[in-house]
Task: inverse folding
């Protein structure tokens, strides 16, 4: 399936890198003794982004209830790759 839809692999790789970057920023934040308002706002933004990524990954795992929709999406994606 990954061979048929290489954009998924690239997207997951990008998300993985973004998660790693966010985690590194959170480690730096937790290493500080005092946090400014800007630091706290940035932490909130990072937390929200991690939540968004989690939701996006969850949606990627969800298959439509109707298998016809799933297969049509798969065929359309395959066709788009072939035509490129």
Result:
């Amino acid at each position: 399936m990954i061979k048929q839809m290489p954009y998924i692999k690239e997207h997951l790789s990008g998300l993985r890198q973004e998660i790693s970057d966010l985690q590194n920023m959170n480690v730096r934040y937790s290493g500080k003794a005092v946090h400014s308002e800007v630091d706290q706002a940035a932490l909130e933004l990072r937390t929200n982004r991690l939540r968004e990524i989690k939701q996006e990954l969850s949606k990627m795992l969800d298959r439509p209830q109707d298998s016809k929709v799933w297969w049509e999406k798969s065929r359309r994606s395959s066709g788009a790759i072939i035509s490129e």
Summary: Residues 78-84 have pLDDT under 50 and may be disordered. The chain is about 80% helix and 0% strand.
